[in-house]
């Protein structure tokens, strides 16, 4: 049966003799420390010191090493004297005290609120000690310090051995069974030295284990070496191990790994002695007001003077020692700066802020001044001042007294924060206990007989590989190169999907994706394809090409393994959060069967799915487990007897291809092909990249239609760091978005007013609030994003793109957020101050809460939230129209000459000399009664809608042809409008950007605009309207239409738009059914102006609605009536022969590289031209701008 668990909670103080109590002072004999027992009324009813200040203390000797589990305090009986806060110290020797901290950072314990009630604190971790010291911090302001106390625990017995650096202890273990899966060694040690071997163990079969102290990167570690014939393990852990306090070490050796535990941090015979240890009295300089003053040597001393000390600190700067030179009227300062030691002009040592003890000695002997660091091992510096240096009558360590004191001390440097010990003056040790008792010197804000240094970087609160550095009072995380930000490198700086990048207005390209936000999965560079309405994440592997199978001698199978660019955890997360994933699987075959033979299944398969994957026996386009290909599912295989084309085993080439779309079987990890060795067998395969679209997290939303409605989820666990992000939209002026309560702790985010968001929480230090105020109302029914983070250093809140608001956490306060109730979304448990509106994409520590699924079963809450165009409609460019979807939105590019997810890509085409694109205007049905007698001979469909009254025409072009016909608009009346490039256009290098508008009444007015240049008007007198438009033609004309037919066009045309008609778009993207007739070669290209390569032989000229910079001069020619036909001909030219009012010249910046090979667009229509320009470089010869 199990041994009974010993209860360690017995009172330890109540039966002690009065001699076991000591104190700094006592008010009177009846207020002595021996009366400070809980619930006793002897004497004056407790202990009170002579004066009430923070230098008083009460000490109890428990008589032997004891395990303490709790402490209780009480005020002095029948008085107004009690403590409201205190520090608790422990020691084995009565010296070298160590402060006990709850949660590793809380130093102060709350005290009493009256003289009689008892306040007990259970220690989070039991303490083993002999001496207990209590230091009052605060007390009743209407009384003085008064105390009765009790400690609880039980006796602690252990065997102790003392080693002096030359001695050792050998222990031989009795034989043990050989088959042991786990071996462990544990011990407790204390030491003053930062080097040496703690333990060495030899095992059978040359196994060994060594624990030794090392200083690495200026930090003291305990190094564990484990060696065996076939392996070598090396781990190091620990911090401040030479502080002369007990540290616990445990080593566990499993068959496959080694665990080292030091104190509370883990990284993956009866001999009794006394433990004799020297007494070193240290002191702690806690803040800017700390100092120690000691009397210096007399003027009668010899010509040699010395001052020595040891110090340890985390700070890079601080004053160690200063004294005056009265005879010379000078001052000596010994100080740290940038972690180096300075003595006026002397510098020595380096990295002295590593938390280790460093010795410093200042010696003045016969005109030579010497500073020695670490007994000469660190560095030694010498100087020869022109006078004798003596210390004078006063020495100040660490700082200076407050201003206004009579003592002469000046400190131009930072005050020292750290520990000092082993002070010597002229080689005589300074008795700091006498200093503590005010019998020698003076001090302020010093903790004597203890070193209160804390390693705030062990364990490190810096996440995701951030490096930790520290000062005395805080730590700092360097998050550079981690991909994360914040005070503890907690929050990812990258989005969690391509969908999130797209809806920030980004285009296709490589992006870092952090699928789990602040989780443990690292960001990964992934290609985002945003050219379609769907946003695809494309994850490549090591072989996406079509691969020919080559027979291998002696092998009946061909095997291929695929390694992906993303890590395993990220692959699983991407597939899990995507709405749809697919992977192409293709097999080309000739006499090479795939899945089935006449003798049964063939050993061909592929392995796919999470982890190592599972064997799959189906092919692309068929369901899992079907042993079929897509043709078998569609019943159109070349041989109806088989379910794959390749299984027909024919000599002609065939193929089986399709998409694998079942996420449970993706990605494809390996492929095995079985019929590749027969004579005449030939085959090739292709496994495409993994493609996924649709982020289920981005659009996961819920609509709260009542203030009393809410969703509830399990308790949020974010003890040390928590990040919360979501989007909201509302018409209400206030409401709580999120709340989670604990016994005392809580966390809450709310809309406190129509223009302010409030993030509040309490981790035990009192409520902390962070507010962000918006410049405009937030209840505008548009999406707004909130990102809140709380960690051990600070809390931050960001609203949309406004600056982040932050609040620092208390330096030594509570750090654990302890919640225990349900997490409420959109409301509170009290059903008050609830939120009305939509919440979307709610993530806590990188995990998305499924609001939609919970909303489906919750009254008063609806799943999903429509209405995204009000927030994202501006992403639709170039007159694209935003279209609402249940989850998300899309851009309708129909009325523009652009395409793409955001209508951002011009539709461009390369024209040859014989190419023509003719677009016939749709003929709307018209009532016979609407016809006029003058138009009776025309088709019945002509209506006033086809009358050119105020129409827009825009296009871009690039050509070396001159003259050329850019656009022809013809009517049923044999009237036409033509846009020509004049034969004088000899140097059309820049982009031409022209807009013209034609009003046709009795007078024709043409508005002609180049980019943002001033609009120019041209009045053409006529008595005929240009109406009844029939067609638009790009390229070569039919000779029957016009005498301009011989011109044609060779080059690039892009973004052609006549009102809402885009003939190129209709010809290239919507050929069936289409009112477009294409003659000759027409190749879709990327030669448009928004992707132009400035080094190509031909540069695009852009004639469009003016929104860019004015680039080229334009001049009209006369218009003429030819046979009753109105012809408006606009000649674009830069020739000096043209009639012009003025020519202005301006230069434009060139692109950054000057070594791009010149390529004509006709030769390479798919060339990806650069669109990046820099205004910082000088202009090239072919980039000039002209104005008229």
Structure description:
The longest helix has 10 residues, at 568-577. It is elongated, with a radius of gyration of 43 Å. Strands 1, 2, 3, 4, 5, 6, 7 and 8 form an 8-stranded antiparallel sheet that branches. The chain has 1188 residues and is mainly beta. It starts with 9 loop residues before the first strand and ends with a strand. The protein contains 7 helices and 85 strands. It is a single-pass type I membrane protein. One of its GO terms (cellular component) is membrane. InterPro entries: ConA-like_dom_sf, EGF, EGF-like_Ca-bd_dom, FA58C, Fibrinogen-like_C, Fibrinogen_a/b/g_C_dom, Galactose-bd-like_sf, Laminin_G. Residues 281-451, 700-865 form the Laminin G domain. The chain crosses the membrane at residues 1120-1145.
Low-confidence stretches: 267-272, 924-948, 985-1005, 1091-1188
In percent terms, what proportion of residues is strand?
Answer: 35-45%
The 3D shape can be described as elongated
Straight-line distance between termini? 103 Å
**Most strands sheet:** 8 strands, antiparallel
Briefly note the structural class of the backbone. Answer: mainly beta
Helical content, roughly?
Answer: under 10%
Number of strands: 85
Mean of the pLDDT scores? 77
Enumerate how many helices there are, as a single number.
7
What's this model, at a glance?
The protein is mainly beta. The protein is built from seven helices and 85 strands.
Key terms:
7 helices, 8-stranded antiparallel beta sheet, disulfide bond, FA58C, transmembrane, 85 strands, ConA-like_dom_sf, 1188 residues, membrane, mainly beta, elongated
